[in-house]
Amino acid sequence: MKFGVVTFPGSNCDYDAYAAVRHILKGEVAFLWHKSEDLKGCDIIILPGGFSYGDYLRAGAIARFSPIMNRVVKFARSGGMVMGICNGFQVLTESGLLPGALIRNSHLRFSCKYVYLRVENNATCYTNTFQPGEIIKIPIAHGEGNYYNFEGDIDKLEETGRVVFRYVDNCGKVTREANPNGSINNIAGIINEEGNVLGMMPHPERAVEEILGSTDGLKVFESIRTACSSMVKTMGER
Amino acid sequence: MTNKKSKKAVVYVRLKDGVLDPQGTTIQKALVQMGYKDFLAVRSGRFFELEIDAGSSDIDRKINEVCSKLLANPVIEKFEVEKKQ
Scanning A7, A15, A227, B17, which has its CA 20 to 30 A from the CA of A176? Predict the structure, then answer.
């Protein structure tokens, strides 16, 4: 299986994602250029963090119209796996692949620190190697990560297990203090209805080695690999 | 600037009612701190000036299209268009 990492002008976590897959996971990975429409046969596309197009207009608003995104949207709509991290999450909401919007942090500051997350759903392609309710430590680095959606839509996400990660304290409690940006219900990551598109504000690719302070993020990449290999296996059995 | 004959439209984009506006809230707090206690709430937004080819057809539809596709995010924002001669 092969990972693809998109580079937009202004992406700055593309190399981190690439390195996490190539050097830590020891997987196959390719960079995908924003002007290209070639997904190079990748099985999972990562939209990385950064400030695509300088965050002009709204974070992710312009990246959404880049040539590679035409292909990524089609790929996602036909069931392909797409994960958006931080700015990538913003691109996914702007492009309509995920519901809601990411607005200014409620305190207006850029926040760069380790946070605790609770894995709310471990039955996804991105979380299958986590324990249910596992508390993990992964860093955030954003100014616009305040997840917003209308009440009815939030209820729908909650009821269908589509809130995948939630900000919690180190004991796993959902508190106001543990919420770094004002997100509704402490939402840190969500998945689409079909289960193939995930968006999360925290950076799993920055938590893949002890020297970085945590290896919890690596499990996201391991889960993707597990999901992809079981998909290939099922296809082979047919 | 183009040499072509043009007309203008101004697009105002603002957050929908009920959507949290941390910037507006902070500005309002600053005003109160400055002594301007009369300003009870501030909502922030932005505007765009569009210069449009005077000969273009179906322009209302096109303006609406660019507003909902790019200038505003319909999930959280609404827009108004003011056409000028």
Answer: B17
A205 included as an active-site residue = yes
Substitution target from B44, B75, B77, B78 for chain A, most A beta carbons within 10 A:
B75
- Please provide residue B4's backbone torsions phi and psi, each rounded to the nearest 5 degrees: -60, 155
Paired with A200 in beta bridges are A85, A189
User: Cβ contact (<8 Å) for B73 and A58?
Assistant: yes
pLDDT-derived band of residue A230, with 50, 70 and 90 as boundaries? confident
Mean pLDDT of A184-209: 98
Cross-chain Cβ contact B75/A58 below 8 Å: no
Token pair of A133 as six digits: 């309710």
Name every chain A residue with its beta carbon within 8 A of the beta carbon of B48: none
Residue A238 is predicted with a pLDDT of: 44
Total structural domains in chain A? 1
Provide the CATH number for the domain formed by B6-84 in this structure: 3.30.1280.10
pLDDT tens for residues A91-117? 999 999 999 999 999 999 999 999 999
Q: Write the DSSP string, A179-191.
A: -SS--GGGEEEEE
Residue with tokens 């299958």: A128
- CB contacts, 8 Å: B73 with chain A: 58, 61, 94, 101
Among B73, B77, B79, most A C-beta atoms within 10 A, so best to mutate, is B73
Q: Which two tokens stand for residue A72?
A: 């990524």
Query: Mean pLDDT over all residues of chain B?
Result: 92
ipTM computed for the complex:
0.83
Q: Give SS3 for A134.
A: coil
Q: pTM for this one?
A: 0.92
Q: What is the distance between the alpha carbons of residues A141 and A111, in angstroms, rounded to a whole number?
A: 5
Q: What is the pLDDT of residue A129?
A: 98
Q: Where residue A101 sits, what CATH number does that domain have?
A: 3.40.50.880
- Give the domain range for residue A163: 2-237
